[in-house]
Amino acid sequence: MHMNHEMPYRELGRTGEKVSIIGVGGYHLGIPDNPADAVGIVRGAIDRGVNFLDCSWDYWTIASNIAYALPPHAESHA
Known about the structure:
Elements: E1 9-11, E2 18-20, E3 24-25, H1 35-47, E4 53-54, H2 60-69
Parallel strand pairs: 3-4
Antiparallel strand pairs: 1-2
């Protein structure tokens, strides 16, 4: 689903990359009993224009839940 949104973006330092002013913190993505819930949160955020996902390196479950929400895994974990 692609939503019509007007997400504001800002430049990230001097990289030239545009980052959404709203991000998704990763800690809570490892809490749901069902990883599909975390996938739904990530996909919903992306559909609304969020392109900043914050994930600490030591939250391996969270990183794996985020990975399932992104291509090429997204199609197999709907």
